[in-house]
Amino acid sequence: MLTDLLGFPPQVLFGQLLLGLINGAFYAVLSLGLAVIFGLLNIVNFAHGALYMLGAFATLGLTQYLGIGYWGALILAPVIVGAIGILAERVLLRRLAGIDHLYGLLLTFGMALVIEGVFVKIFGASGIPYAAPSQLQGGVNLGFMFLPWYRGWVVVASLAVCLATWYLFERTKIGAYLRAGTENPRLLQAFGVNVPLLTTLAYGYGVGLAAFAGVLAAPITQVNPMMGSNLIIVVFAVVVIGGMGSIMGAIITGMSMGVIEGLTKVFWPEASSTVIFLVMAIVLVLRPAGLFGKTA
After folding, report:
1. How much is the mean pLDDT over the chain?
2. How far apart are CA 13 and CA 71, in angstroms?
3. Is 221 left (phi over 0), alpha (psi -120 to 50) or beta?
4. Domain residues of the chain, as ranges?
5. How far apart are the C-alpha atoms of 92 and 43, rounded to whole Å?
6. Which residue among 29, 54, 164, 194 sits deepest, i.e. has the most Cβ atoms within 10 Å of its Cβ?
7. Residue 216's Cα: distance from chain center in Å?
8. What is the four-CA torsion angle of 142, 261, 231, 276, rounded to 10 degrees?
């Protein structure tokens, strides 16, 4: 009955919905990291895709060369890459504080090219396979589709991290300090708060979110130096749709755009690679600040 109505087996629809949810999970985590960095530091971080790739390679290194399992790498890889981000913020990005955003974009774009170039030189451009942990291999037959355990885990873990990040920045004292620091840092420092340290840690946290997405992606997409550059333009479009700097906008828009992209692959395959940019164009015409962005 449903096959006659749709014109194709329902498993195709549900399979693409699952794929859309998985892509949406990556979009949400990556765009959340971008939103945190832009909202709190006013930096358009074009190196985000390269840092996502670093998270995947850190996982590969931790598991294959140091003998640390996937679950340990899930914690350590974001910490390691976040520490690299903190170093970059202290040494490079802090020098651009208070000047035009274009300089930060150009600097981070250059950082991305350097990082990707180094990894291509060392590992080549071909992908390196990485197996899912044994606990999450296999799946369950739901009747209307087959759900791989690992892909279900990616969606659940991404949502959990996104909601925890929203709570941290919107409902805790640290989040209040960070938001106040972007609006009036001198006043906040007058109350004894170390604003530079908070912004540095916020950048490290945003970078850590990119690395966390890289760890989740490693068993799904082969680990290769160009995996971030293939994704970052789409993620920037998602951030623009949700509203630059909006944490909840990044979460909702990321998941929604993944689902919309998956449905488009079913009903209009030719437009699946451009539908997100079409939505972005419509949103910019109707609401230039984004769906959840603050209007001036």
Report:
1. 87
2. 32
3. beta
4. 14-286
5. 12
6. 29
7. 11
8. -160
Average pLDDT of the residues in 212-230? 91
Residue 101 has pLDDT above 80, yes or no: no
Mapped onto helix, strand or coil, the DSSP state of residue 132 is: coil
Q: Which helix (H) or strand (E) holds 140?
A: strand 139-141
What pLDDT digit, counting tens, does each position of 13-48 carry?
Answer: 777 888 888 899 999 999 999 988 887 777 888 999
The DSSP 8-state label assigned to residue 271 in this structure reads G
Per-residue pLDDT tens over the stretch 155-178? 999 999 999 999 998 888 888 887
Q: Which of 215, 252, 195 is nearest to 82 (CA)?
A: 215
Q: What is the pTM of this model?
A: 0.92
Instruction: Say if CB 191 and CB 185 are below 8 A apart.
Output: no
Give the DSSP letter string of 236-252.
HHHHHHH-TT-HHHHHH
Dihedral of the alpha carbons of 106, 82, 257, 220, in degrees to the nearest 10: 120
Top CATH class, 14-286:
mainly alpha
Query: Chain-centre distance of CA 4, in angstroms?
Result: 38
